[in-house]
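quick one before i forget lol
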Amino acid sequence: MKKQKKQFLGMLLILAVLAAAYGGIHVYNQKQEEKEAGEEAEKLTVADFKTDDVTAFSYVLGGQVYAYTKTDEEWTWDGDISLTLDTSQIDAMLDAVTGLTAESEITDGEDLAQYGLENPSGIITFTTADGTMTLQLGDKNAVTGQYYLKVAESDKIYLVSRDLSGTFSKTPQELLNEEETEETESVDATEGVDATEGVETAVGVDVTESAASEDSTEK
């Protein structure tokens, strides 16, 4: 009887410990969620639109402006609308901007050169049903590792953690879908073979004609 009582008390003790542990974990998780919610609330919204909302966008790369337009859920490059682009790659680029938040905001940044924004290293423009937004990309902050960014339609300067200049650094040829790329490479290869055969044929004719001419002269 005493043995059963001890076992029962031991089980109660174990249950009490487990209940206390569970309660502690629950409180900890709740505090973490509250902390994360507070941190999110402190962040500043820079771009408040979704990837699907974007109907056109452009960016400057190497001094060249590349513009893209979406029609019937398909993206095309304005420079050659016959090319078929990889929608997943473009969506990945836009995902880096949609819902973009900033860690902090500079309200008295009158000297744009101080932030690399007098002559921005990059300019990205997005068009949605609500209008157009242009982002100007500045220098990297050497202390925080974040990047200066300015919305052209506003005087505000933001510090963001995302390197958008690296994201928007592809040429239209690099955005082609795999089938389009394979077809392009196939055409290039075919043209290369034809051109080589043409040269060989031409050279053969020249050599033959030259030999015939020499024989005629000797006779």
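fyi The first strand starts at residue 44 and ends at 45.
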